[in-house]
Amino acid sequence: MLSDIFPNAPQHINQEQVDNNTILVWANGEFKIGFPANIRRFLAYTRNGPWLKPFCGPKMEDGRDMSAVIMETNDGRHVVINAEWSFNSSESHIRMEGDGWKIVTQTQVASFYFTLSEEFMGFRTEAVHCEPWVNDFGYCTWNSLGVDVDHQGVVKAVDSLAQASAPPRVVIIDDGWQVISQDRRLESVFPRKDKFPQGFRGVVDDLKSRGVDKVFVWSSIIGYWEGFANDLGFATCTIPRNGNQYLVPSPEGVYNYYETFFSYLSDQGVYGVKLDTLNVLDDISDQGIRRAIQDSYMKAVEYSSNKYRIKVIWSMGMVPYIFDWFAKRPETTKGPFRNSDDFFPQIIDSHFWHNYCNIYNSQFTRQFGHSLDFDMFQTKFTDPSPGAEKMPWLHAATRAISGGPIYITDYIGAHDPDLINCLVSDGKALRFPNYPTVEDPYQCFDDDRLVVAHNQNRFGRLSAYLNFTKNPHSRNIEVPSGYVSRAWKAKWVADRDGKASIDVQSGEWELISTVKIATIGNKRIGCFGLIDKFAGLAALNSVQITDNCLEISCLPGSLGLYLPDGPPEKAAVGNDLLDIKFDGVIANVDVKSEQTLRFWF
User: Fold this and answer.
1) Between 2.40.50.100, 1.20.1530.20, 2.60.40.1180, 2.40.10.220, what CATH number should domain 445-516 receive?
2) What residues does 172 pair with on adjacent strands?
3) Of 601, 584, 68, 567, nearest to 367 (Cα)?
4) Which of 106, 243, 405, 481 has its CA 20 to 30 A from that of 205?
5) Beta-strand pair 170-173/138-140
6) Is domain 2-117 in CATH 2.70.70, yes or no?
7) What is the reported pTM?
């Protein structure tokens, strides 16, 4: 099977059958497998600092190190090559060289998974083991307050969102609360008294009095960006990284450090930590030190977070040892995992690239079972460059199909309540329980066409048509037999007999919901969920038909029903009759609170 794609692969390498389509290939030491034969196009993932970067095309470039690659052959078969990190702790990756591909490793064993199939399978997919708080709408202080964050600033920001009818349930106090030296080294485990005079307890209590349920704080896995300024009372060691020396907790001292830090956070009422700069531990040049540090740090975080019930958001960790750690814990309930690099508000192309990366990285990171964090964004820019005014809505459309958490980082007083309302109902972020899929897994960022991504639940599917190009694009939409679709912006509704198309300008988007048509008697029915929300299908708790009654339980918003054959005979919540308004074939019902509605036909 391997020789079908790599005819010049050496004979001495080991091949172990994993399942009908997959083998594990390994050898002691690095080895070459030659060039892949008869490849039409590919999508690969390479390191970009602490992040993964998708790149693709018909031609592969020399000198790249890849974590994984998918390929389509000229005869229509599909290949998945996934570097293996956990097998004998191999830390392998795939390197493109002028005379063929090479499997390289930082240890003694080089290995990878190889899958060949007639149909596209992609990377193996774990179920999403999502922590419940991910369903809550959140606010992060980073873009809005930056390193000037303090108690009063956080409270003002939350008050500002409440005044915009968008109160958050989760608040992340990002970088800026620490006592640090001028060279960005940590001087205390506890927050600055001039910024948080009552510690975190004071701001947590103030936020909870305003309806915030959970408060996170930011931290680097080594304390701060450049480590410790002194030992801070913990056993420490020096690690070599990128030509510099960092003072950090030693493999023995890190347990005491996280015990002290997380127990303090727990006492202060802090719910979790956004744990950043995970890549630092992968950049340690000495292999022995690196493995000891990685293992002890992750175990210390796991132990203390479980002991003190501190939740973790994992950031800047798209590196082999993190993938290894996650792969060994497939059934663990996991915090969100940052899924791409940053964007820059005034640089339009960076928004396009950021969202493309998130969508295509998710095709790879889905195998670890985390909810994928597409990152915070601003709903309104205070001084936008030309075209930037479209970007918050583009981010919002991408987040709607992400299946991950939704939190924003607006400046105080600079909010778009209409945009927030499209993503949130009653304080809950409307998200799907699955990972997004893509129409074309081999699509390049530079391709001059729409990126099409989907997500779904048991009630229907949401498709996002995203324009990351400089040109407008049109698209004809096909509706499957027995289904009905509705376009969010264009507002059209089409079933199998209808004709539909969309036009999407540069930097813009369209969302199309598709649901199955049911019947009661001779009347056709389709439930779109909340049609004033992007992921309105995610607002549905249940939809069921009993005899001549349609029963729907959902969150508050504007419920939309496809009723082309006329209104129901009766509609009610309990004993109260419902007011139904029609817009063409769509019946709208204003749902005031989370409740069950009944429609008789």
Assistant:
1) 2.60.40.1180
2) 140, 216
3) 68
4) 405
5) parallel
6) yes
7) 0.95
